[in-house]
Design a protein that fits this description.
about 260 residues, globular, Rossmann fold
Length: about 260
């Protein structure tokens, strides 16, 4: 199983929307897919229609209470897509983990022992605390959603520095599979400028597929479903299908042996 963390410490960049829809797209192409919701807000869980009453065990139990991945995994309405949901308890996990031995490696241990899926996506919180460090420590690679605005570039620089520190201390094999440009609006000159700057700086690391500003993408979570199910023909859904194709082309061959 290959593990992909989806992270950006800046909020509001389309991180959870990307996690939900790229996981759905991968499941639709036949990959046995797992989504781990590591954000205390639990938006990825809500976006897949998992109600609070269904979250008896969650990613909090996985990290703090030594629950197994199988105990915490729920099926979703999307064939081939399972989820480890999040609850608000997760907001206290960082404090509880401070005194725990190997506090940055607990998620990695849980995922290493699991062989029921081909690929796992981790939706990280918008911060660089212990939860995100657990995700980066467990991940084979990192996908970074980047909103097309000026301040997002500063956040990207901080995240890249964090990745270097994680490589040095916890996970030397961590790579970056790509940067996803989100909330792309061709009517805005700044959008094109930020896009050009990112591509000039990071080159082929930036995915060709861009995620547009799209009303359907915003509406879908309120209905408890991914945009690819809510309206598979909208511009946002088509963009995520295109992104999934690119992602598959970048994933290592060993994924097929999961």
């Amino acid at each position: 199983m290959i593990v992909v963390a989806i992270a950006n410490q800046k909020g509001g960049v389309g991180k959870t929307t990307t996690a939900i829809n790229i996981a759905t797209a991968m499941a639709a192409t036949g990959w046995r897919t797992l989504l781990v919701d590591l954000d205390p807000q639990g938006n990825a869980s809500t976006g897949l229609g998992i109600g609070n009453d269904q979250r008896e065990t969650s990613s909090y139990d996985l990290l703090v209470n030594d629950a197994t991945l199988a105990d915490c995994t729920l099926g979703s309405a999307i064939p081939g897509l399972d989820i480890v949901p999040a609850t608000v308890d997760l907001s206290g996990a960082e404090v509880e983990l401070v005194s725990v031995e190997d506090r940055t490696g607990r998620l990695r241990k849980s995922l290493e022992a699991h062989h029921g899926h081909d690929i796992c996506f981790i939706d990280c919180p918008p911060s660089l605390g212990l939860l995100t460090l657990n995700a980066l420590g467990a991940a084979d690679t990192l996908m970074v959603p980047l909103q097309c605005e000026f301040f997002a570039l500063e956040g990207l620089s901080q995240l890249l520095q964090t990745v270097e520190r994680v490589q040095q201390r916890f996970n030397p094999n961590l790579g970056i599979i790509g940067i996803v440009l989100t909330m792309f609006d061709r009517r805005n000159r700044l959008t094109d400028q930020v896009s050009d700057d990112v591509r000039d700086c990071l080159g082929p690391l930036v995915f060709e597929s861009v995620i547009p500003r799209n009303v359907r993408l915003s509406e879908a979570p309120s209905h408890g479903m991914p945009a690819l199910v809510y309206d598979h023909s909208c511009a946002g859904s088509r963009a995520y299908i295109s992104l999934a194709r690119e992602l598959i082309g970048r994933l290592p061959e060993r994924r097929k042996a999961a």
